[in-house]
Each structure stands twice: as C-alpha cells, then as structure tokens.
Write a structure and sequence with these properties.
Elements: H1 2-51, H2 54-58, H3 61-65, H4 73-96, E1 100-101, E2 106-107, H5 110-119, H6 122-138, H7 143-165, H8 170-192, H9 203-237, H10 240-274, H11 278-306, H12 321-328, H13 331-346, H14 350-409
Helix pairs in contact: 1-5, 1-7, 1-9, 1-10, 4-6, 5-8, 6-8, 7-8, 9-14, 10-11, 10-12, 10-13, 11-13, 12-14, 13-14
Length: 414
C-alpha cells in the first residue's frame, strides 16, 4: 500500500512536471525564436538571477511544518509571505548594483534590471505555491497540486502567445510569467482548502520553526547558490550570447533534475514515520537509492541522442548541445543526492548538509571565476558535474558510517 501511494503521488508530480515542462518547452521555443540568442540570453539572465532567491523563500519550512501535527497552515503561509517581502526588497536592492559593461556586452543592463523588478513579483506567487504544497505533501495527495500547476502553465502559454503575436517586448513576456504564476498559486491555495483569514501570525510558531529550520534553510540556500552561481557568473564574465546558449541547455537540464525531487517529496513522509525502525528505514533507503540511480541512466540515454534537436529552435543554438551532454553526465549524482538529502534530514543531519553545501558553493564559485573567462559555458557544465560528484561522496559518507555501526549491532537487516 505504501509503495502504491508513493508511486501514485510521484506519478502525479511527474505528470504535472511533464505537462508544465512541455508547455515550458513551447514557451522556450517561442521566446528563443522570437528574440534570438541575445534576447533569450537577456531572458535567462533575468529569470536566473531571480531564481537565486527562490529557495530562500522555502528555507526548509515545509519539512518542519510536516513534523508538527497540530500546526496551523495560515501561520506557515504568513510567515513565508513575510519572508517574501524581505527577499523581494533584497533582490531588487542588489540588482541596482549589478555590474554592466556596454562595450563588452557583459553584466546586467538597465533594461535587464527593470526586467528583474517585474519578474521579482513572482516571488510572492512562489511563496503561495510552496506553502500550499506542504498541505499536499502532508496528506500525500498531489492530484490537485498537478491540476493547479497545469492551470498556471496553460495561462502562461496563452499570455506569451498573445504578447509574442502582438510583437510586445520581453518585459511584457516577463509580466505574463508573473500573471500566470499568480493564477496557478491561487488555484493551489483554493485546492488546499485551508483558512488564511483572519490575518494572523503565531509568533511562538514562527520563532520555533525558524530556529528548527535554519540549518536546513541555509543548506537549501547554499545548494541553490552553488547550483545557480554559474549562470550568474557567466552573465557577468561573458556575453549575452554565451548566456543564451548555455541557458537553453540548462533549461532542459533543469527539468530533468526536478524529476527525482518529486519522488523524494513523496517518500519523505514515510521516512519520518519509520525512522525509529532502523531495520525498515535502511531497507527502504537502500531500495530507493538504487531506484534513483537506475532512473538517472534511463533518463540520460534518450536525451543524449536527441540533444542535436536544439538546432531546430534556431541554428544559433547548436552550441547548446555539448554543454547539455556534459550536464547529462551529472544526472546520476543529482538523482541520488536528491534522495540522500532527505534521508539525512530525516536523521537530523541538517547542520552537516549546511556545511557540505557551503563548502561546495565556495568551491563552485572559485572554479567558475577561474575557468569561465577561458572556457565559457563549457566550464560551467563541467564544474557542475565535478561539484555534484563531490557532494555525492560527502552525503554518502555519514550514511555508510551509520550503516556500518548498525550492522555491527545487527540492526539493519540488510
């Protein structure tokens, strides 16, 4: 029964991701063909910069909200909205000081900074989506999550099609993204069927959950910075065309690495329930580790051979093929670390995760600063592969040690 429930809800998430990604693929084609490599580079710069702040809104709050049986949804909702206000202001203040070199075509122009301001309103929609998803994860029922996400994506496609047909600028396209994200967010909020009025925030709840989640929150922030830093540094150190080429390959890679996240989300509630049963816990961990590993190779093979189809978007995007294939090689690491993160979180290893991702973030940034000027987006893709491989090793070490200790005690049963 447990495995069927995990499979069903993972299927809902994958189906939602499949539909929204297909729609996202169509939107990517529209934007890439409409605005070319340079315009798509501008779009990638803007959206990638704002995405750097998305996981700060998460801050690991959902993981700990699920551990409180009597926690009220609206406390989570308003705490996250309060955090969103701070993040919205922070990212726009930083954007004002982002460098720009008009001669070399590097950095962020005034138009791109204005695009950041428009797109950053999506932070509030993302906050609603994250809060509502906690309810679907808690009830282990992702059907309405799927419906809400599809609604938002369909609206996004319609708006982008209309604006592109009317020859509107990229700013209007970004505005269309914000509109559709709010539509999807409010749909999820309705489906969650949780009260958010009257407006109130339990200070004790806020303080307690923030104290509990800060190691995980920082880990997620370091994780995102380490994962997105290459695009940001590429935007500053290389031309907009380079950003456009890498941006297209990264767009598809981003879809692929989200797949294990859905399975992890469905498994996490069960890990919480059985963590005291060490025999069952490690049996389940061992089984799903290999499920994630095998799934990664199943994904790599077809996408490796269809990657030349990037040229169908525009021949200017032929350069996206090689970095995409390099990124594909890192999928076994991304798939398994996605699962190992939640296993370690279940075991209370948030501070360990925080340290690992802090160190990997620093390593990633240093390597990108050194090699991007010479190797551009190929350096970004290669460093992503190396960095995630190192993270994989360090996430595996404490689990292997813990398992050895339990096997000596005869408690794992595997």
């Amino acid at each position: 029964m447990q495995h069927k429930l995990v499979a069903k809800n993972t299927s809902y998430q994958i189906l939602a991701r499949g539909i929204t990604s297909f729609i996202g693929f169509l939107i990517t084609l529209i934007i890439a063909r409409k605005f070319g490599v340079t315009g798509f580079g501008d779009f990638t710069k803007i959206t990638s910069y704002v995405a750097l702040f998305y996981l700060i809104i998460d801050f690991g709050l959902n993981a700990f909200f699920l551990q409180y049986e009597n926690a009220r949804f609206k406390n989570l909702f308003y705490l996250r909205m309060l955090i969103s206000v701070g993040i919205f202001l922070l990212l726009n203040v930083i954007a004002v000081f982002l460098p720009y070199n008009a001669v070399l075509g590097t950095g962020f122009s005034a138009a791109e900074r204005f695009g950041i301001f428009i797109f950053s309103f999506g932070i509030f929609a993302q906050s609603i989506i994250l809060s509502a998803s906690a309810i679907f994860q808690k009830t282990v029922n992702y059907f309405f999550y799927m419906v809400g996400m599809v609604i938002g994506s369909v609206i996004n496609l319609i708006v982008v099609l209309i604006f592109a047909f009317l020859n509107f600028s990229l700013i209007y396209i970004l505005f269309g993204f914000v509109i559709s994200s709010f539509v999807g967010a409010f749909a999820l909020l309705i489906f969650a069927k949780e009260k958010i009025f009257p407006l109130s925030l339990d200070k004790h709840f806020a303080t307690t959950i923030m104290k509990a989640s800060w190691p995980l929150g920082l880990m997620l922030i370091f994780n995102l910075v380490y994962f997105r830093a290459d695009m940001f540094l590429l935007s500053i150190l290389k031309t907009t065309q380079d950003v456009g080429i890498y941006g297209l390959s990264y767009k598809f890679f981003d879809f692929l690495i989200a797949l294990p996240l859905f399975l992890s989300n469905a498994i996490y509630p069960f890990l919480l329930k059985i963590k005291t049963d060490q025999k069952l816990f490690f049996k389940l961990t061992n089984k799903y580790f290999f499920v994630f590993l095998i799934a990664s190779f199943i994904v790599i093979i077809p996408f490796w051979f269809i990657s030349p189809l990037f040229t169908l978007v525009k021949t200017d995007f032929s350069g996206s093929i090689l970095p995409f294939r390099i990124l594909l090689l890192s999928l076994p690491f991304f798939f398994t670390t996605s699962f190992l993160q939640w296993v370690l979180i279940t075991l209370g290893k948030q501070k360990y995760l925080m340290v690992i991702y802090l160190l990997s973030t620093l390593l990633n940034i240093v390597l990108n600063v050194i090699f991007i000027p010479q190797f551009s987006y190929l350096a970004c893709a290669t460093i992503t592969l190396i960095s995630e491989g190192i993270v994989f090793v360090f996430l595996l070490i404490p689990l292997l040690k813990y398992r050895i200790i339990l096997e000596r005690k005869g408690q794992t049963g595997v």
